[in-house]
Amino acid sequence: MASFSSQIKITNFQLKSTEPIYSNLTWTGQRIMRSTGIQYYQIQFTLNFNSTALREVNSFLAQYAQGKPFTMSLGAAGTYYGTQTGSVTATALTSPGNMVVPVSTNTLAVGEWVQFSNHNKLYRIVERTGTSITIFPALQNTVQASEVIKYNNLMIEAVLDPDNDYSLPVGNIMSISLKATENII
Fold first, then answer.
1. What are the strands, taking DSSP E only, across 100-169?
2. Counting runs of H as helices and runs of E as strands, what totals does the chain give?
């Protein structure tokens, strides 16, 4: 997990959903939309630090600049503010490609994010009932019966993008902006 000491401040954190969608307007005026690829998240953040923390930043870059995945907290975006209390679990085996996951009683709301215990992909709830949630995108991995569904303190597993500019201005106060893409393997 990419956790930094109190000497490094993460600012300008941005989360962007990339959803390849094809749209076509028919001759009758009806709009047809469909997904044409996989959905994933991209993040961007800035590390601000004093020169005394340069060693820690260089250690992070040495470990992860070559494509090794890291996990990072989503901060306030990954904090749950809804009415659900207690755990939510899947009640049946659900295969990759499915969007409907049967769950124990839940009050998770449409628009909230969830993750499953066996993989770190972020999913958005697009529909719900008392006994199931419909997620987007479709499942990337199998969800087991009784698997815990995480809805609070969410993390993103990402890989630094190859087009990052690793230039560091040398001085007492330094900063570097980084971009990364969700690791969806």
1. 100-102, 113-116, 119-128, 132-136, 148-150, 155-160
2. 1, 13
Using one digit for the tens of pLDDT, what is the confidence trace for 115-162?
999 888 999 999 999 899 999 999 999 999 999 999 999 999 999 999
Give the pairing of strands 31-35 and 155-160: unpaired
Interacting residues of 172 by C-beta distance below 8 A, sequence separation 6+: 50, 51
pLDDT band at 47 (very low <50, low <70, confident <90, very high): very high
Q: Where are the beta strands (DSSP E) in the chain?
A: 8-18, 21-25, 31-35, 40-50, 70-73, 88-89, 100-102, 113-116, 119-128, 132-136, 148-150, 155-160, 173-182
- List the one residue out of 183, 164, 86, 98 whose CA is nearest residue 134: 98
Q: State which amino acid sits at residue 78.
A: G
Between the CA of residue 41 and those of 144, 154, 184, what are the distances in Å? Answer: 24, 13, 9
- The answer to whether 120 touches 157, Cβ cutoff 8 Å, is yes
Query: Could you report the per-residue pLDDT of 61-97, keeping only the tens digit for each?
Result: 999 999 999 999 998 999 998 888 888 999 999 999 9
Report the chain's C-alpha Rg in angstroms: 19
Tokens 């995108």, residue located: 137
